[in-house]
Amino acid sequence: MNGRVYICDDEAGMLRYLKKMLVAWGVEVVTFDRPLALLEGLRTNRPGADLLLLDIKMAELDGLETLRRVRGRHPDLPVVMMTGHGSIESAVEAMRMGAQNYLTKPFPQEQLRAVVGQCLQRGRLLEENRSLKQKLRRNDGEQVIFKSAAFAEVYDLAMRVTGVDSPLLVLGESGSGKEMIARAVHQHSPRSGAPFLAINCATLTETLLESQLFGHRKGAFTGALQHQPGLLAAAEGGTLFLDEVGELSPALQAKLLRVLQAGEYLPVGSTSPQQADVRFVAATNKNLEREVEAGRFREDLYYRLNVITLELPPLRQRPEDIKPLVEHFLVKMARRMGQAPRQVGDELLTVLQGYSWPGNVRELENVIERCVVLARDPVLTPDLLPGKLRRPESVSFAAVLPSFSLRDAERLQVRRALEETGWNKSRAAQLLGVTRKTLDKKIRDFELSPEPSS
């Protein structure tokens, strides 16, 4: 047996006992007598641990809370909980939160050796599998295109959590690629052979969204003429992507919490619980902590979803990604149109890299498609861009007006899109890379209105 094991327990005698046993079996051991010292050790120590043995009952910080923090920062680290006879329920809860196993004190040496050995072996297999997947490039599915260190860090974390079933929360502005990263996680996970299904929680009424998610029984409501399975049933064994999860009503938040806690749900009009076997990936462009504080989002649901968090940087913070993204879009469009790919000129690229991109990657793709459709020459030039991008003031405000807030910049871009399209909201929404509903909300938030004609 070999590997590096971290142990956290505030009982000095237990630490000494465990270290003596594991070292005798050839394992390298690092001990911590406080949870906060453990968290700091995980942050700073290189190389990291292959396994963590974590006590549930500790004075400084509860073991479950420590586990939650460990899982949030190190989602691929196997954790074995150590518990007394009186706290089995806590151990079961820890398993639901992602712990791999638990040991009930006092445990015999044979059990300790078996559990530690199994966890270290499984960890080696997962690491080998992860390395193989990184070497093999998938030819199917949507590619994740990036060059920047900022996005590489997020993508690396995403690939590290493909082998676990814990919920994943993806944060980012509209159009920044939240569904794309969710699909990538699914495609590289053990669930890749089962469906990936997505639903936008902001575009449906509460009744329709409930029916779509959970399904309904015949006669559950007017028009329910037959049994209809929901997305939870259709995504069996796969991944369910909940976009704009912050828009869920309080009633649906409670129903989703039950699925996450108990793994079961009730179809509309049914009294028989159904089992759910899906991995949840939720996404939002809202600050959910602020929504919790305001009472609009359940705190318990937030903590259930927030086991592992990916925060996607907006496109304006990673201009080095614009060139590879543009080249990818040009190849993609050329295949679709059955023609040779266009080339992006240096002058056009300079303009694109200086723009603030409030609609992020989705807006960039729409702009490139416009350029390709209008182009007569093989090389794309700035004159093909929409007017708002050709104006000198469309470059990044961060470089010229440090006091100009992000909200001000976004308000200006929304207003420009509306003016560019003569206040045609559908076309303006497409130009910005957002939904019509999102645009309507922005117009209300920014108190925008058409200028009176003179």
Automatic annotation (TrEMBL):
Alphabetic keyword roster: Activator, ATP-binding, Cytoplasm, DNA-binding, Nitrogen fixation, Nucleotide-binding, Phosphoprotein, Repressor, Transcription, Transcription regulation, Two-component regulatory system
UniProt keyword Phosphoprotein present: yes
InterPro entries recorded: AAA+_ATPase, AAA_lid_NorR, CheY-like_superfamily, Homeodomain-like_sf, HTH_Fis, P-loop_NTPase, Sig_transdc_resp-reg_receiver, Sigma_54_int
CDD domains assigned: AAA (cd00009)
Residues where 4-aspartylphosphate is found: D55
GO molecular function, one term: sequence-specific DNA binding
Subcellular location: Cytoplasm
Name of the molecule in the record: DNA-binding transcriptional regulator NtrC
Organism: Geothermobacter hydrogeniphilus
